[in-house]
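=== RUN LOG ===
request id: a7f3
mode: sequence -> structure
chains: 1
length: 147
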Amino acid sequence: MLNMHERLKAVLFFLFVGSIAGYFVYKEATRVGTPGVVNIGQVAPDFTIKDQNGRPVKLSDYRGKVVFLNFWATWCGPCVEEAPDVEKLNNTLKDRKFQMLTVAVDTDWKPVNDFYAKHNLTVPYSLILDSRSQEAYIRLRVFPRHS
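=== RESULT ===
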């Protein structure tokens, strides 16, 4: 009788755990949008990257603001074309609850600084993602090819 009681407890335990696991699998499978992609209305995953002076910048530090997170590169043709518009947007909204964060996927600060000087950019942050160590780079799935 005791053996039967132990078996029943084990079956009930696995049914319970299996139901919970099934719920989470179903929830993820029926989620709107592509898995691993931040959808409209979702909170973006937090990450920390360093600015040119080595100071950490966390996305979560800007909660409560609209954050325009722009990934770009000095060698990206569309990025070069959009730079004046990004600058204009930042200047228009900078006195509101708005923060522009630009993230360069270049591997060196010199081309980034040269790009800023050439295009007279004042966007407050230009951060470099070191693809060997930065978690945010992994989440970046689509980017124009190097030209």
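=== NOTES ===
Confidence is low (pLDDT under 50) at residues 132-138.
The chain has two domains: 1-30, 48-139.
=== END ===
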